[in-house]
Every structure is written in C-alpha cells, then in structure tokens.
Specification:
Layout: H1 11-32, E1 36-42, H2 48-58, E2 65-71, H3 76-84, E3 88-93, H4 102-109, E4 119-123, E5 140-146, H5 153-156, H6 158-163, E6 166-170, H7 182-192, E7 198-200, H8 209-221
Parallel strand pairs: 1-4, 1-5, 2-3, 2-4, 5-6, 6-7
Length: 223
C-alpha cells in the first residue's frame, strides 16, 4: 500500500493574510493623517455613488472629502463624485475582480494628498459577498441596501450585515410601491447585528440625508 505524501497550500488563507497586512498599513496611514476611511459595500444599483455624492454636497463647507472608486471598468462614477464637489477622486478598474483589495487602495492613496482631506469614501465593486472578506484599512464598513431590492437582503447575505459598522437603507420613498417589509428587515438585521446604527434615506428626495451626513461628520471628529 502506497502512502501519499500530499502537501496542501492554502492559497486563500495566504492571500487574505497578505491583504490584512496591507490593510493595517492603510489604516495606520489614514489614522496618522486624521482621515476617516469609509468602505461602501452594496449591490449594483443600490445607490452607492448617489449616497457619496449627496454626502459630499451636504458636507461641502464642513469637510473635505476624497473618493476612491472601484469598478470593473469605466470612470463614470468618478466623474459624478467630482461633479458633486469631491476634493479629489481616484478610479480603480479591477478588470473583472469582484472586490477591491488593500494593495489597490494603497496604490490609490499614493495619488491622493491625505493632508488635504477629512474623509475618504471607498466605493467598492457592486457585490455583497466578496468585498466583505477583504479588509481595506477602513475605519467604517458601511452596508448600503435599498428598498427596491426587497426586505430579505439580511437573510440572503448575513455576513455583510453582521460585520457592518453602519447600515443605510436607501430609496425609502419607494417603500409603498415595492414589496418591502420594514419590520422584517429590522428584525433580520438586529438578529445579526445589535449595535450598528441604521439610517433610512432617499437620495432622490433627500429624506434622512442630513442626519446621515451629521453622523459621518461626528465619526471623523471622534478619530
């Protein structure tokens, strides 16, 4: 009987450990320069760019905001946040990768002057699964959902809701027109995450955006 001497290399674990080291350096860089870093994670179409743009507009005279935009291709969202008043923005095209990685963010930071910024929003690639497992060095992990997606998102994607520091529910102006059960949504979120604040907003009507922006500003002051 032949004994098989099989050596297994856990590539996924190795990659994540390397990423975590890079993320720790990014976070140290953010903290040393007193810049609040926010990792925005959501499904495509939930309103990531709209939320960032509206926040920039509201905080225009209160904070200097930069943006790192992650997309598989294109630069449309970068153009939008710059038009909204972002101090600076950098586009990362992943070429098919379903998430940003800490090394990508590090390269983007080399093109930003953090000394001139108060807050950086990192708009991750539209996806509720992969981005959750790759730390970027952020201070705040933000999960954005929309009423149009349905109230069962926390049940279908529990990991991101459990790990998030704040949860934003967008498109609340559509709740009466779509099959969204607000009570079920809150119960599902709280079963996974008892402490993250939840903000209800509408980027279209402006409802709830001032309260959300004020909260972000307070997080920066608390660094």
């Amino acid at each position: 009987m032949t004994t098989s001497n099989v050596q297994i290399i856990n590539v996924a674990k190795s990659l994540l450990e390397h990423n975590d080291l890079a993320a720790a350096l990014n976070r140290e860089h953010f903290t040393q320069t007193n810049v609040l870093a926010v990792n925005v994670i959501a499904s495509p179409g939930a309103g990531k760019t709209s939320l960032i743009s509206k926040t920039i507009e509201i905080l225009q005279n209160k904070a200097s905001i930069g943006v790192i935009e992650g997309d598989i291709a294109g630069s449309i969202d970068t153009e939008k946040v710059l038009a909204a008043g972002a101090q600076d923005a950098v586009q990362i095209n992943t070429g098919g990768n379903c998430h940003l990685e800490a090394g990508m963010v590090k390269q983007a930071l080399e093109r930003l002057n953090l000394d001139q910024l108060d807050i950086i929003f990192v708009e991750n690639v539209g996806n509720l699964i992969c981005p959750n497992h790759w730390a970027l060095g952020e201070h705040i992990k933000l999960c954005l959902a929309s009423s149009a997606e349905g109230s069962d998102k926390p049940i279908k994607y529990p990991d991101i809701f459990a790990a998030s520091d704040v949860i934003v529910l967008n498109k609340i102006d559509l709740i009466e027109f779509v099959d969204f059960d607000r009570d079920f949504f809150y119960e599902s979120v709280r079963a996974l995450n008892t402490s993250a604040p939840i903000f209800e907003i509408s980027c279209r009507t402006g409802e709830g955006l001032v309260e959300w922006a004020d909260w972000i500003l307070e997080q920066h002051k608390g660094l």
